[in-house]
Amino acid sequence: MRYKRVKRLLAGISAALMLAGCLAGGMTASAAENGFVTSYLTGKQVPESIGRKRPIAVMLNNIYDALPQSGITNAAVVYEAPVEGGITRLMGIFEDYQDVERIGSVRSSREYYVYFAREFDAFYLHFGQAWYALELLWRDDTLNLSGLEDAGFGEGDLVYYRSDDFPAPHNVFTNYEMIQDGIEFRGYSTDYSDSYQGHYRFAEDGARVTLDNGQDAGVVSPGYDYNDAYFVYDAATGKYTRYQFGDVQIDKLTGSALTYDNILIQYCSWGPQVDSDTYLDIDVLTGGSGKYITNGKAIDVTWRKEGATREDPFAEGNFSPTRYYDADGNEITLNQGKTWVCIVLDTESGNVRISPDMDAFNSGE
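Given the sequence above, the corresponding structure tokens read:
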């Protein structure tokens, strides 16, 4: 095991030195770009070794006692959705995490997060799961790395470990090398599937989505009661800073605030899970309405998944990417950069607030 980790480390160092040597030797910018591709997650140019390898989708704890999360700033896309008791849980999607010391803390799965992970052709990392998600998790075509099955503690702490700076159950973490060991153990391919064509439509290099006719959106709240989350726009950087529990949300490893270029709010119908008084059955398949926020503006959108159906939970269309459309029926274009997706129960849509600035937000506008 240790030999394999050293071998991967040496290979990465060798590739980096080769690229640095070429640049130092006078390689032109256009030639250097030959080793780069457009990221499926951010729309930015990234090394092919990052942008064409399957990402990871990690379930992240988001209750107060588990904060701050580690490594979350490296997640190019973050999903936030309600779970039991009104709390929210996050799922971060990472392609560039090779140098992250640790990622977590890692928590358990719910069925709707599995659909989100599969939309990105991602390895899905979780520590436990709701019982009703098991059949979906253990399908041959779900790239499952479970912490409570044979890719977790049952195989010598292969993918996850417990830290001593958080109390259980908020102390489960992972890292790049352990994840690669789990992928190898499972026999999964690290390359995107041949049929995968990306999730979002991004602006071209140098272009900027402005939503000129949109609503002013200096402060955006998805209306979650438990963590009182909101985002504040900074016109100087063109990014939204994330706040929750009355303070800015940071990454424990860097101490830096979490910032995002795009926010998507996705309203979903829901009900209680069958045979359960606890778990939520959130419909992330059959479409609905929502909001797209970027560059200080917000517009109404609709969302849908081609070929998806609630009648068959394993229908091929259920795993296709969710697409978002403007009022004219055109698929929206995101600004290049990171995206935060808020899943909001449709019955709670009235709690969503979009204000022109902080003064208006604080006064209830």
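The chain has two domains: 2-38, 39-365. Try to locate this feature in the token string yourself.
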